[in-house]
Amino acid sequence: MALGKTESRHGMWSSRWLFVLAAAGSAVGLGNIWKFPYIAGENGGGAFVIIYLVCVAIVGIPIMMAETLLGREGRNSPINTMRMLTQQSRSSGFWVVIGWMGVLAGFLILSYYGVIAGWALFYIFEMATGTFDAVTPDIANQTFNNFLANPWLMLLCQTLFMGLTVYIVGKGVIKGLETAIRWFMPLLFVLLIVLLVYGMNSGGFQQGLDFMFRMNWESIDADAWLIAMGQAFFTLSLGMGAIMAYGAYVPGDTSITSTIATIAILDTVVAVASGLAIFPVVFANGLEPGQGPGLMFVTVPLAFGQLPLGALFGTVFFVLVSFAAITSAISLTEPALAYLVEEYNAKRARVAKSLGVLCWLLGIGTVLSFNVLADFKVFDRTIFEFVDHISQNIMLPLGGLLIAVFCAYVLPKAVVKSQLGIENSALWWLWKLLIAVVAPLGVLVVFIVTVFPCAQTLSCFGA
Fold first, then answer.
1. CATH number of the domain that 401 lies in?
2. Is the terminal CB of the chain with fewer CB neighbours within 10 Å at N or C?
3. How far apart are CA 293 and CA 295, in angstroms?
4. Which one-letter DSSP state was computed for residue 241?
5. pLDDT tens digits along 93-104
6. What φ, ψ does residue 405 adopt, rounded to 5°?
7. What is the pTM of this model?
């Protein structure tokens, strides 16, 4: 039984599975669909998948458990949860920075995430109208470049996506978040299965399977471990306040340990299945699996355009991408929204609209980064690259590191044991080892690698 409040003022998830779907929806984003399959194929295939799973187990899951237990103990927004817990543990007010950093990071990420997600909405229309039917690579590339060069069209797509996000979160935990998740997540899984079956019959399934799962241990080096550790941290939406905010709505009798393990498994399954759906289509057309937005918005549309019923299944693919994006976006909005509702006793719908407008305005900088302000640099980065670097490469790892340290060394042992329900002494010491030593060191290494110019970049378009 939790030592804190039994319920959040914002509402509660109606069941354990709603929290699983909500947290999985937060974790499953654009990065799962294009980034994980590619980096797995490029860094050892099946060997990389194995070390990635190890990193999820020793870094991702412990920090996700810690963030969830903080949320459930505090039963408030991340900022007010950390205020309450620092008072409860009689510790320094410094630790409230965890809440502030998470809320701010989530807001910054949403500002550009809404822009990138808007691209997926545009491509639903493009695929459905047959724009990519039997097109050449040059035309596919030109279509994407023309879109990026049109700030008004990008702004329209961003507006549509942000409007949908604001509408959902403004309805509340039960009527908004739960209702959206009840529909979007099952549909996401159904669409993914449809695309997976299509990929298996595209003619390139064996090549896709070999690309992602060949046991290429000779490719595993220190860089591969760093990439795996970074992906394990970023893919679970850690450090941005979303999991802490969602944790505040978890029923007190729900097992945090088994629930978080289930979420991590679902997140990984979606990432792997996405690769097995995408790459067979790519390889069936003799195309190269280019990394980043080029894969999702050039190579994939081109590949679908060459296949029977390609326009139909290409449309299904971008609907899938949009569903994944919207479930992540509502989780990015929730921490800031919950705090403002608590602090000013304001109506949720009104706060949602205000946040949406502010986020939309900030996102204009990202829109213009690809066209009008492409040459404008902040510390040698475009506006989009700068906001992405600050939020993903600095704020999220620092937030995750502080969460681990706070749970391991500051929060009273009785609170942690109560929330996790750990009674076995061996399991308790395993938990302490992971949260106090292994996970913080892992995140610290990722932080150092991502911040310094000589290190490789691990950031992606969202959770």
1. 1.20.1740.10
2. N
3. 5
4. S
5. 999 999 999 999
6. -65, -40
7. 0.91
